[in-house]
Automatic annotation (TrEMBL):
This is RidA family protein. It comes from Paraburkholderia acidicola. The lineage of its organism: Bacteria, Pseudomonadati, Pseudomonadota, Betaproteobacteria, Burkholderiales. Gene3D superfamilies: RutC-like. CDD domains: YjgH_like. InterPro entries: RutC-like_sf (IPR035959), YjgF/YER057c/UK114 (IPR006175), YjgH-like (IPR038743).
């Protein structure tokens, strides 16, 4: 197997090593980003849901930036929401702060019962800058 081309955001590598996964992997002109939650620097959940969503996007944006991307390069997003029926509107009022203008990426939203103490998680696939013309 070829060596994975892993992208680490500044200052959080220890969290990924401790939990044994890569924050993002470059492959074939795409960036595959692991699910990002609203964790504080020590990995603990941000207790306030709206702040947690903002932290999740901030964590995501740090990974995108480390790969030379922005959210504008995102082509596909998957979000996981605990108790989506009661929390979706609170979460979705924060999303436009980060989502940008249309056209938006494709989206899959999944309601779940547990996210390791978090209420929201987002994972994305982005086009890498060097692949932008393909």
């Amino acid at each position: 197997m070829a060596q994975r081309d892993v992208v680490f955001p500044a200052g959080r590598q220890a969290l990924y090593e401790r939990n044994r996964y890569s924050p993002a992997v470059r492959s074939n002109g795409l960036l595959f980003v692991s699910g990002q939650v609203g964790s504080r620097e020590d990995g603990s959940p941000e207790p306030d849901l709206e702040k947690q969503v903002r932290r999740a996007f901030d964590n995501l944006n740090a990974i995108l930036a480390a790969a030379g991307c922005t959210f504008d390069d995102v082509i596909d997003a998957t979000v996981f929401i605990v108790d989506a029926e009661s929390t979706f509107e609170r979460i979705w009022k924060v999303v436009p702060e980060y989502w940008g203008k249309a056209p938006h990426p494709t989206l899959t939203a999944v309601g779940v019962t547990w996210l390791y103490g978090f209420g929201f998680e987002i994972k994305v696939i982005a086009k890498l800058p060097e692949a932008a013309d393909s």
